[in-house]
Design goal:
The complex is a heterodimer of chains A (about 270) and B (about 80). Chain A has about 270 residues and is of the alpha/beta class. Chain A contains 13 helices and eight strands. The termini of chain B are far apart. The chains are: A alpha/beta (about 270), B alpha+beta (about 80). Chains A and B meet through helix 7 and helix 10 of A and helix 1 and helix 2 of B. The structure holds adenosine-5'-triphosphate (ATP) and magnesium ion.
Chain lengths: ~270, ~80
């Protein structure tokens, strides 16, 4: 049985694709056969973040419409042998994602022996997003510590709890909160919602806090999931999040301001 | 930072304001979420009836369903214009 992990947020640009790439790579690194699917039909980007943009021949929609087999469309990652990527279509529109079609592709991936199917949801609550939510066993709610992102996350939780396949069958989707673009200095100054604030409001179990980090842009520039960057705070934080997802207990890192120089310490900054 | 804190100590931080606003908004939105699907239409119809008699703005009519024990309470708020 494959586990479907949907990475979702409602609001755009909060870090879903960055997180999908990191989580999928992390699961593969931990030894699990993993496939990551781009549900953002019309606005494909996961291929770039994964660094496979030049290897896309067939996509998710081609498979659904029978123009290609899954084997033809899956792209094997060159760094991690357990990881495959299924790109979104750049030309078709989102209505190409039918519930029946998506369901069949997911079933087939499970038959092929994939343990985890990570779904990179598009922003919004239209077709691509609702399809990714519908089939979720687990949902990673990506939230920035900012009012509109938190509100949209709550909206998505409502959809998960009423419209997902699991909910309709009387079950529950496992919910995990992933806070990204966290700036501990601004939190300390009272300018940004803290991780505790966001947890209080959304009441979802926190799986990780990813700091605002220059390493994320560098990773996307080069097409390497940031989790593979062992020198980067964001990469290490994603590593912790994946370990927690897999049941490990790890303390949160990078959630307090970095130690500062002597001067600012005398003035009372830092920790 | 600490020095700055001395001068701005009294004022509530913007993060605290954000949290408070979100808590109020989200608890409201969660209540409506579990409401029946006809609520928005009911709100439109009631608004149309009210408008037949008084000139009110659309956002001055609010309707919500609250659950109190095993009873549901339909709460209608109409802010009438002055005069
Ligand atoms: N922790 C972080 N630190 C700094 N920048 C980040 C971080 N996470 C994401 N970003 C940046 O934010 C932008 C949006 O990220 P990403 O594409 O992953 O978001 P998304 O939620 O998938 O967006 P969309 O809704 O458009 O699909 C990118 O430029 C990315 O580099
Ligand atoms: Mg994206």
């Amino acid at each position: 049985m494959a586990t479907v992990v949907t990475v979702t947020s409602g609001k755009g640009g909060v870090g879903k694709t960055t997180s999908s790439a990191a989580i999928a790579a992390g699961l593969a690194q931990a030894g699990h056969r993993t496939v990551v699917i781009d549900f953002d039909v019309g606005l494909r980007n996961l291929d770039l973040i994964m660094g496979v943009e030049r290897r896309v021949v067939f996509d998710f929609v081609n498979v659904i419409s029978g123009e290609a087999t899954l084997n033809q469309a899956l792209i094997q990652d060159k760094r991690l042998e357990n990881l495959s990527i299924l790109a979104a279509s750049q030309t078709k529109d989102k209505d190409a994602l039918t519930e029946e079609g998506v369901g069949q592709v997911l079933d087939q991936l499970a038959e092929m022996g994939f343990e985890y199917i990570v779904c990179d949801s598009p922003a919004g609550i239209e077709r691509g997003a609702t399809m990714a939510l519908h089939f979720a066993d687990h949902a990673v709610i990506v939230t920035n510590p900012e009012v509109s992102s938190v509100r949209d996350s709550d909206r998505i939780l409502g959809i998960l709890q009423s419209k997902s396949k699991r909910a309709k069958e009387g079950g529950k989707v496992h919910e995990h909160l992933l806070i990204t673009r966290y700036d501990p200095v601004r939190v300390e100054n009272g300018e940004m919602l803290s991780k505790e604030d966001v947890c209080d409001i959304l009441a979802v179990k926190l799986i990780g806090v990813i700091p605002e980090s220059k390493a994320v842009l560098k990773a996307s520039n080069t097409g390497v999931p940031v989790i593979l960057d062992d020198d980067a705070d964001a990469g290490l934080a994603y590593g912790d999040a994946v370990a927690r997802f897999l049941g490990e207990d790890r303390p949160m890192r990078f959630v307090t301001p970095k130690k500062q120089g002597l001067f600012s310490r005398i003035l009372g900054g830092g920790d | 930072m600490a020095l700055f804190g001395l001068f701005s100590g009294k004022k509530k931080s913007s993060a605290a304001a954000a949290k408070e606003r979100l808590q109020i908004l989200i608890s409201h939105e969660r209540q409506n979420r579990h409401g029946p699907d006809f609520l928005p239409e009911l709100q439109r119809d009631i608004l149309a009836v009210v408008k037949k008699y008084v000139a009110v703005r659309d956002d001055h009519v609010s309707i919500r369903l609250d659950r109190a024990g095993d009873a549901s309470v339909l709460e209608l708020n109409v802010t009438l214009p002055e005069n």
